[in-house]
Amino acid sequence: MTNTAKPRLFDTHCHLDFEPFQPDVRWHWQQACDASVSRLLIPSVGISNWGAVQELTTIAPQQLYYALGFHPYFLNTDCPEMSCSERMAFLEERLAISDENCVAIGECGLDAIVDVSPALQEAILIAQLSIAQHAGLPIILHSRKTQSRLLQLIKRHKFTRGGVLHAFSGSEQQAQAFIQLGFKIGIGGVITYPRAAKTRRTVARLPLESLVLETDAPDMPLCGLQGQANHPKYLPLVLQTLAQLKTCDVTDIAAHLWLNSHQVFGIDAD
Ligand SMILES: [Zn+2]
């Protein structure tokens, strides 16, 4: 028997504070709600937007969550004059006064494409791993051509809180290695592109218990929607593609993803 009720969805990675959603962010959030997105996590990129992401969650405190951290891509533009230890002092201070809607550290990670020194990226990441470990928080990981190095660092620094490997694309072996370390795999619009054959095959084989959905809006537009800002209202299209790849019923798969998303961030799935 197929359940006809619309499944509730959790967009685990959406930059709702970014320019395309301003100034009428409430209207955009309502559009997402109308498309069955019932919960959404807003990751931050650095000191410059921590206040904004926290403030946004007050629009719908039972539905919107946030993460605090330093994104590798923005290290040259977000308070570049600060040393690593100064940045971490700010993060610890901010965490101490954050509310219960702050459920992760991130987004953080390593980016091999951006013009930011790898040594600085690693120092900032390692320091965030330590803060997350002590705070008992999961991390949201950004990776561009850096998955093996991320795995090495997570193991070497004995980070055990898990989190989400965001915007996954890659091999089954690497995905499994992250799953072994307690990570969920963030599945986004990339799987809607037929040319992403390797990632689609990998995702089809990964256990449902290890997956969460995300849009990364306004980035990562879906296939057929290139050239416009991505939006959390498109999350059901990612779900549909995932259900096709896994030959599963959409409602069943959505129920698993809903639970996985709450579990990884320690939120009650009511
Ligand atoms: Zn992001």
UniProtKB/TrEMBL annotation:
List of residues binding a divalent metal cation 2: H142, H166
Record-level GO cellular component terms: cytosol
Record's keyword terms, sorted: Hydrolase, Metal-binding
Keyword Nucleus (UniProt): no
Molecular function, one GO term: metal ion binding
Coiled-coil regions listed in the entry: none
PANTHER family assigned: D-AMINOACYL-TRNA DEACYLASE, HYDROLASE
Keyword Membrane: no
Family classification: Belongs to the metallo-dependent hydrolases superfamily. TatD-type hydrolase family.
Descriptive protein name: Putative deoxyribonuclease YjjV
Signal peptide interval: none
EC number of the protein: 3.1.21.-
Positions of a divalent metal cation 1 binding: H13, H15, E107, D216
Family annotation (Pfam families): TatD_DNase
